[in-house]
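COURSE: Structural Biology Practicum
ASSIGNMENT: Worksheet 4, Part C
STUDENT ID: 0417
INSTRUCTIONS: Below are two proteins. For each, the amino acid sequence is given first, followed by its structure token string. Answer the questions at the end about the second protein only.

PROTEIN I
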Amino acid sequence: AEIGIQILKQNDLLGYIIPDSLLVLSNRKILRKYIYDSTKIREIYYCGPKFDDPVVSNIILVLEKESDEIKRKNNQIILKFPLEQSQANNVIRQNVIENWDYEFLINLNEKDFRILDHLNTNFPTLGSLIESSKFNIKMSRGVELGKDGMVIFCDDCKRFYPLPKKEFKCQECKSIFNPNSIEKIIVDEIPNGLEPDFKPFIYSMNRYVVNELKYIDITKKGINYKDLNIYKNRIVIRQLSQDNLICASYDEDSVTSQSYYNLNINSSSIPEFNNSYILGLLNSKLLSYFFIKSFGSYKKLFPRILIEKLKSLPLRVPRTTHEKLLAQKLTGIINIILKNIKLNKNSTISNLQIISDSLVFELYLINDNDRNYIIKFIEDLI
């Protein structure tokens, strides 16, 4: 690509069919910056897999050699997608690429860039609040064990380990496991007389509600259960979305697997900044929109929720009297949702979620036009 651009004369055009890894991968950043600093990006067309037995999908990149920096930055990039992808063609100004670490974010439009910039600029991230001395916020994954609860005992180490999927040997001492030493420590019912050895275990969960509980034996030496205090009175966040929305709930004392995150506001200098309030923010359309637009792509809309991405979420800390009043209202609504969802009052919950979303939009200073845009974007996905 560099050689092709170098041999071009001013305003000459060059087209490439190249792997779409160029768009965002960190190891392609140098090339993206060179393209940004040397050309007007006339068009990016995502064509997907086009060759026989493709290993990767592809894009067509049309570049125009341009030495004038102002013309490059003001250039309008045309973004196109195949008809079968059901994604509208789009146009973005070239200078926004610089603000996003030179990633070619073809799934965003100018309005998305503006809204995301507002959220990223004006509100602290969850990660920064975890580090703040004004709050005691903890977030961690659950037990390092699969949902099946299968473990195996090493006769040499005298410790239990999650049942390996590949090599049937101990990763510590390298001895071969005994197949007769396999146990299942997540069960439907607690065996008689062993109640102190077990705790409730979240087996499945939806937004605002735990669907299915099982029980986990917490006595197996070697299994990393984490500090059991992290499972008390906290928000639980699922790695997988529910209907393209962040899936979070509240739970008092159930253990989770490592596919869930446990978030707890242990103490706060602002009483309105509490677990119920944060749950309302997390389950809002606004933060799902933020997550999709920040970390999704033209390939996979809602990516798996990883802990570092969670830490990037912007959270509104209520400080003024008005903000605290809104936070109190949101907390009240969320507490009502938590009570009603157990009664399967779906119509009531839907109405309460609309009120909750409206309060969140107001807290984040989102105007009516942008609210309607975000709501339509999310509802078109559900």
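PROTEIN II
(use this one for the questions)
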Amino acid sequence: MTFGVIDSSQFFILTLPHLSIFPTFILLLDYYHSINHLNTSVFVMIILIPILRVIFSFIYNDFYTKNLLKEGYLPPEDDEYSNAILKGNRFLEYTKEDLLDKEKMERYRLIIEEYEQERKKDLINFVLIVILLILLIILLVYI
């Protein structure tokens, strides 16, 4: 098994999902010294902004995908992964040829299962990060 060297662009791509949480952590540390004097609305905003960013990103992604498909931006016919994801998430309808081709439907099913497993891992990571942030907040409040 060989391990490749990660260059700076790959490192940025790998760390990009975690960078959205970093500003919240900095905000919490910034208010650490005056946490007892903190206005409740400001404290709620520190918590709500990251949560709303995550929720709105999913809404925006769904809205943007539907608009692209409406404008005629369709994946190529030979791109099975994109077609399987879009059809599995009901953005596109299965064609009669797709439904009759059992091998293609099996490949689509495997791709969709793999995609759903990746999303479950993402959800678990998100929940763990939220739990850790809550624990950090509790720790900062009661220290």
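ANSWER KEY EXCERPT:
Q1: The mean pLDDT is 78.
Q2: The longest helix spans residues 102-142.
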